[in-house]
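re: ur question from yesterday

yeah so i grabbed the chain u mentioned. its 337 aa long if i counted rite. heres the sequnce exactly as i have it in my notes:
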Amino acid sequence: MALNPSAVGKRDSDYTETTDLHPKGGEPQKNSAATSATANQNGDQPGCGDSVMPEQEAPERRRSMQADARSFSSSPLPAQRSTDELPRRNFQIPRKIRERKGLYQFLPPESREFEDLVKIISSFYLDASSRGTFTYCKARLIHNELLEKEFIEKRREMKQEGRTEQELAESYCFLFPDKSKLQWICEKGLSVGHCKINTLGNPSVGVYLSKYSDLLQINPFEVGAFGDMIIFKVMRGRIKHIHENTPKNAIESSPKFDCHLSKSANRVTSLLSYRAFELTQQYFFEFAFDEIKARPRHVCPYAVVSFQYKGKEAAATPMAAHRFNTISSEGSKGNGI
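ran it thru and got these structure tokens back, copy pasting raw so excuse formatting
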């Protein structure tokens, strides 16, 4: 019987394809079928870069895929990472902003610091009727690091000398300076020779300050008078009391003392008392190796407050006295020695 050449060629071709599917070991190549099936399930078209992975590359690729999986699982998602970092990047502790311009820290009238200064001033009134006769419209704290440091150093030295707590106690005094000298005093401190009073000691070797905040000058204020007072923080240290009839040579400053006060100061009970201003002054000085210092360190400028005197009649009206009704009643007694 004659053979059909095409049939014979087809059988040879089928045999050849069947032989190629079985390697020498006799096992069929399953990777090709699995790859084709996966491609069909994913909708991939054969011949678009999907080739059979060689056996020597399979372990390396599996390790690479496992490493990528671990890296992906350990790193947070973009949304999670941004959520975690957002509080750390944007959260800030709110701070109370205060207006401070160099030497001064200006205090708003409604601030607690402003009210504290008014309380200090009113607590050093000599006359109870002064309440409401003054209005305070502007205040600023003085930040002079050099003077503050020297004040602390002076206190430490006095403590090392065995001074008592009463001698180391801090208090306040007041000064109504010429307008032209105010800035200089705040920057450089109060130096000897700033006044001409000599009741308690030579003004060329010490400084004078007012004990009472409503007794800032010899003559009473006229209605409508205004200006700036400086509040000083002071330590009186060891005090020497001076009599009115004490000879001038007996009131010279001595290294054993830090402050002179008048023995007659307690007799001053009114703003109109005889020599009320002079007798209530306080005199400060400091020695260094038996030589007088040009600026006593236990006198430090603390604040500047602007005031206006409105008189007794204005104090009697409710509107003028309203602001001072909130101040403690201790203000009329005075805390000075």
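noticed a couple things. The two ends are 148 Å apart (CA to CA). also DSSP finds eleven helices and twelve strands in the chain.
anyway ttyl
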